[in-house]
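User: Structure please.
Assistant: Input sequence and predicted structure:
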Amino acid sequence: MRFRFQMTLLAVFYTVCTFVDWIMFLSGKATIHNKEILCYKENYVLVNSNLGGLYMLVFTIITYTYAMFMWYVFYQVPKKFGVVTRRSVDDVADMIGTGDTSIMMDEENLKTVVRELEHDRRFTKHQMSKVNGRNDSSEGSNHFQSGHLTNGVQ
């Protein structure tokens, strides 16, 4: 039932998206040809007129709609049918202690899951300390201070 519902939603969405993509493609070509929007240094889009601004607004709204629909189909629909659950490091540790190995079948995969969850926890803690104005490196990881991520700007 869930799979059929999910696939029907995806098929309808992809059909609608095909038409919307063609409309956006053709109108985008027209706006570039009429110099309503300009491409600058292959990285920037400059809006030259209200029509170009309208095109970019519609393009942005459609992009967000695509993202939200994918979130709905691949997260909310399975969650509605009880397939998605959230587990923390403590939950996984409790499962090891009780002998419930339904999350993973072998020990190596379980260790990988625990490592990734711990890494996510450290990363979140580090990001929150940066937001709060502190530079908390008490976790012993200098991985996030390598210069690649400075105040959210690369």
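The first strand starts at residue 37 and ends at 40.
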